[in-house]
Design goal:
Blueprint (H helix, E strand, L loop, with lengths): L5 H8 L3 H16 L11 E11 L2 E10 L4 E8 L4 H12 L7 E4 L4 H9 L3 E3 L6 H17 L8 H21 L16
Parallel strand pairs: 1-4, 4-5
Antiparallel strand pairs: 1-2, 2-3
């Protein structure tokens, strides 16, 4: 998962590229059932979306990040972004929060209705502390470019599910295995 392409991994271990692809698929299935974190106190969460390709079409990955720990607390994939996708992502994030955190978001028009419906506090910001979630997406996109660049699955439902499984697996790796320089070499999940 350290950013190597399927071809490089296949050459390194003397197996076919298809074997590596199947291996990744099995890992995605395994990690899909793992929770991203434990329930913790989270005063501030960051929420944003980004695009990923799925067979040439766009899929949206929506994620929430705990600001204090830099820990991903929700990662989900959708065909489009809307009030419904925002509510769904926030509800998933709340499952790992002791209380309702303040959400920091960008100025997307659907946030106002979503957070009003959820009866939650939110603040729209463009720069500053939102850079942490933008940095997570940059790392996520670096990996998708190296590993897949495109989730080439023809069936739309399976493609969205595949993007979501990869996003979840990546978030799990990011939280539990990847040391963070800003956290002095610790992983986000190791912080209490």
């Amino acid at each position: 998962m350290e950013g190597l392409s399927l071809s490089v991994i296949a050459r390194r271990y003397g197996v076919s590229k298809e074997a590596v692809r199947q291996w990744m698929s099995k890992f995605e299935e395994f990690f899909a059932s793992k929770p991203l974190s434990k329930v913790k106190q989270r005063p501030i969460a960051l929420l944003d979306e980004t695009k990923a390709k799925r067979n040439g079409k766009i899929a949206y990955v929506s994620a929430c990040l705990d600001l204090a720990r830099r820990e991903v607390i929700a990662a989900k994939s959708y065909r489009s972004v809307s009030i419904i996708s925002t509510v769904d992502t926030v509800k998933r994030a709340l499952e790992l929060c002791e209380d309702k955190p303040l959400f920091i978001v960008d100025h997307a028009p659907w946030y106002a209705c979503a957070f009003e419906w959820l009866e939650m506090e939110w603040v729209p910001l463009t720069f500053g502390i939102r850079s942490y979630i933008e940095r997570w997406y940059r790392t996520f996109k670096d990996r998708t470019k190296r590993f897949y660049n495109n989730f080439g699955i023809r069936n739309d439902e399976k493609a969205i599910k595949r993007v979501e499984r990869f996003a979840h697996m990546f978030a799990y790796w990011y939280n539990h295995m990847r040391p963070h320089e800003t956290l002095k070499g610790a992983t986000p999940s190791s912080l209490t």
